[in-house]
Amino acid sequence: MHYAMQLAIRLIWIALTAFNTFAIVYFVIGVTAGFHRSIFTQGPSGVLTAFIILPLVVLLTTFSIVKQVQCWHTGQFISWEAIICILIAVLLASMMPGAVNPRGWLYDFVSSSKLETSQDRRYEFQFEIVNGNQRNSSDRIFLRDISTGEEIYIALDVERDYFDGDLLFNGSTMMESSNDSGKYIARVIPSKHATWEQEVAFEIDISNRTSRRLTP
After folding, report:
1. Residues 68 and 140 in one domain
2. Whole-number Å distance between alpha carbons of 86 and 14
3. Does some domain include residue 128?
4. What spatial distance separates the first Cα and last Cα of the chain, rounded to whole Å?
5. What's the pLDDT tens digit per position in 26-38?
6. Domain that holds residue 129
7. pTM to 2 decimal places
């Protein structure tokens, strides 16, 4: 085989091996959102890819590397077994990015209650759960000053057992001014269909951008 062709095949093998390595790393980090969520929350495609396609890609890529290194040690330029294995691995690896859900990883996944207006008509507000069911999840309240259009996010001190999507989507919300200037009481009131039966209330200090859970 002509040297130029041998070199081209060798470079192609290196490029395909690098592609497979990137696909493996991308899938593992992406499907787990940087190890913040379980693979089992990603649906059938994520689970099947993790337990069938991913191991095959790893095994074929590893076998290809081993065969190619052995080939070099024996003074040969290219191993056709390594080429065939890496091509099969590339075909499988090309399916892996499609099984990655970028929500909660490349950008936040936000679940929210219905946008409501405070009783004094000064603010629009909604409760939000960011990246729910992940270890890096957080809760906040979104406020928009109706007169100025200013948007404010204030973190909420919440225990997940007391505040979840079921409560948000099957309940009502309200926000009323308190006796302290610049402070409001925001409430999530469960409906008869919600699994959680107790009202959740927070004191919202808009001036200092802080909150305090009042109940439960």
Report:
1. no
2. 10
3. yes
4. 77
5. 999 999 999 999 8
6. 110-215
7. 0.78
